[in-house]
Amino acid sequence: MFRELWDEIAPIGRDPRTGGYLRLAWTEPERELREWFAAQAARRGMPVTDDGNGNLFAWLGDPADGGAVLTGSHFDSVPQGGGYDGPLGIVSAFLAVDTLLARDARPRRPIGVVAFAEEEGGRFGVPCLGSRLLTGALDPDRAAALVDRDGVTLAAALGARPAGADPDLLGKIGAFVELHVEQGRALAEVDAPVGVASAIWPHGRWRLDFTGEGNHAGTTLMADRRDPMLTYAFTVLAANKEARLRGAHATMGRVEVTPNATNAVPSLVRGWLDARAADAATLDALLGGVTAKARDRAGRDGTAVSVTQESLTPVVEFDNALRGRLGAAVAARTGLRVPVLPTGAGHDAGVLSGHLPTAMLFVRNPTGVSHSPAETAGDDDCVAGVEALAAALGELACD
Ligand code: GLV
Ligand code: MN
Ligand code: MN
Ligand code: MN
């Protein structure tokens, strides 16, 4: 059952040369996945609604009754991402609904399956864009004006200005449970197929613009150069060092160079810093350390650096009571031991957790690799994930 449904979406957006995925929000592959979502909903007689922010919902029962139990994740990927990050939560959601119904469970609350838009921020730069809009954490006018790398605005991609906060819809959701492939090795190390999340590290994204003087590579004396590439390179090393010192994570995985020519000293290097830490004070100190070192180095290189925050997600502590209840229900139904683990990855569940009781289930990732074509999960573990999610939905929504 799992493999059959999984194989329906596995080819969509897959690069045959690398096995990696490119499923940016509102591009062709992601639209195809949305059509697949609608077809799955129709197959199960679940009406589909859209919140005007690009988030899709399929309903079993009438959400107007309130107290709905929502489950799902996102379709979009990072460039050359894995196939499981996101879609596993949506495929598992439909299969968990099937499992419940096959057992003649009688839902006493509506159950919703959701596909959130632009979770990765891979196209417009703001992660969890759909859930931030829905919860009011992101201003719809600011979002409408965001541009992708080709200069297309979010409003154009969505076909309208986003609708923004929907307190009415949020008020009808009693709980959200997101199933996700684990993005580390914690479950593999304790030999458990499924775990529950305790917390998400605070994290954010900053754009660093290093400006200098574009000039000729052959004729400009080394002493005369104002080369922003040097300041950038130093900053990459400084970020790594600052993170290691603090037991935190810093990544500079994206860079744009102007004019990007072999024989020209660049005039501008734009680099993005992704920084994460176990607590807000450490994250602040990490950012402070990196920017101070970048500015100091810019002074020595005759360049300038400006820092723009693109997103910031505070620490998330998932609802303790819900986590305990789900862990117990999953263990009772499946006989599995269900470890509890924190994560450094961001999720729509983290955004929703500020508004309603929220929990996450993780499915073992044997290598821990994610945001890479090498991301994987075993079929047996994915089936265990569906069982666990069905147990969770049964606990929250059924008699
Ligand atoms: C999304 O997966 C993130 O944590 O960057
Ligand atoms: Mn991801
Ligand atoms: Mn994800
Ligand atoms: Mn994520």
TrEMBL record:
Stretch forming the signal peptide: none
SUPFAM superfamilies linked to this entry: Bacterial exopeptidase dimerisation domain, Zn-dependent exopeptidases
A Pfam family this chain is assigned to: Peptidase_M20
UniProt key word Hydrolase: yes
Residues binding Zn(2+) 1: 74, 85, 180
Bound cofactor: record note: Binds 2 Zn(2+) ions per subunit.
Molecular-function annotations in GO: hydrolase activity, acting on carbon-nitrogen (but not peptide) bonds, in linear amidines; metal ion binding
Transmembrane segments: none
Keywords from the UniProt entry: Hydrolase, Metal-binding, Zinc
Family matches, as NCBIfam families: hydantase (TIGR01879), PRK09290.1-4 (NF006770)
Similarity comment: family membership: Belongs to the peptidase M20 family.
Identification of the protein by name: N-carbamoyl-L-amino-acid hydrolase
Species annotation: Micromonospora pattaloongensis
